Please model this.
Amino acid sequence: MRGLKDSLREMIALEGPISVERYMSLCLGQYYATRDPLGVTGDFTTAPEISQMFGELIGLWILEVWNGMGRPDPCRLVELGPGRGTLMADLLRATRLLPGFQAAATVHLVETSPALRQRQQAALASSGLPAQWHDRIEDVPPGPMLLVANEFLDALPVRQFMATERGWCERLVGLDGDRLAFGLRPEPEQGLGHPLRLGDVLEWPAASVDIMGAMAGRLVRDGGAALILDYGYWGPAFGDTLQALKNHQPVDPLEDPGEADLTTHVDFHRLAQTALARTARAHGIVQQGDFLQALGIEARANALKARATPAQAADIDRALARLTARGPTGMGELFKVLAVTHESIESVPGLPALPPSS
Model:
C-alpha cells in the first residue's frame, strides 16, 4: 500500500519542491483523518486530558463572560479542534451552575476528522445538549458567540523563510536522493524587508491569521468572546519552531509524513494585531499558569482532594503542577492565553485588556 511518503516523493519529482506550508497541510490532513492522536496510546496529551479542573475553569470563565454580555439567548458555544470532546464535556458540566445558560446555548464543534467526531459525540452524549459539527468556523450559525480554541492554532500550517545574503528565501521540502530534505527557494521573497542576521527563520502563519480574522470579524458583527490557549510567544520573533511528535517523543518532521503530529509555536502578537485591526478588543496575553491561578484552580484542587483517596489526591496535585508549573515539565509558562471580544466587552476574567496600539 502506497503511503504519504511515496506520494510526496512522486509529487516533488514531478512538480519540484513544495513549501513547508503545503507539506504540513498534506501531512496533517492524513494524520488527523485516520486516528485519535491523544492520550497514553497516542502521540501527545492536552490540558483537558490531564485534569477535569482545566475544562471546569474554562466553563466558569464562559459563564462570567456570558453573564456580563447580558445573557444573550441564543448564544453559540463553539470549540475549534475539540479533540476527544473532553474539554467541552467538562465545560458543560460546570456551566450548570448558572441557570439559563444551557437553555440559551447551542453547541458547535469545528472538526474535520471523522475519527475525532465519533469520540466527541460519545463524550457529549450524557451532556443533555445536542451538538452540531462544522468543517469551518464560517459555517457556525450567526448570533452572539463564545468560542474556545485550546491547542488548535499550533496545528495549522505555516510558511517559513530563512535569512540569506540574497534576502528572505522560502524554505521548501524537496528530495535528496530518495530522502525528503529541506532546501531554499533561490529567489528571495519580496516585501519582507532585509534580514539582519543570516540564518534567522521567519514563520508566517497565514492559516492562523485567516482564522483569527474570521473570528474577530464575527465577534465584531454578532458579539461575544473567543478564548485562545496554546503554546507560543509574544512576537515578533525569529526561529524554527516546527516540531514533530510520535509516541510522546520528538522525531524528525520529514521522517514519517502523515504518521506524526506536526506543530509550530503560535505568534500571539500577530494574532492580537489581526484582531485589533478588525476593531475587536484583545485581552492578555498571560501565561497559562497565571490564568488558571486567577480563575481559582488551587481552590478547585483542594475541593476535589477533600473527597479523594490519598492516591487520588496525589494525582490531583500532579495534574495541578503540570497545568501551572513553569519550566520544561509544566505547561504554565510555555502556554499562553489570549481573549478576543466585541468592543463592548471591556474586561474578562484573568486577562488584562490590551491597548489598541499593541
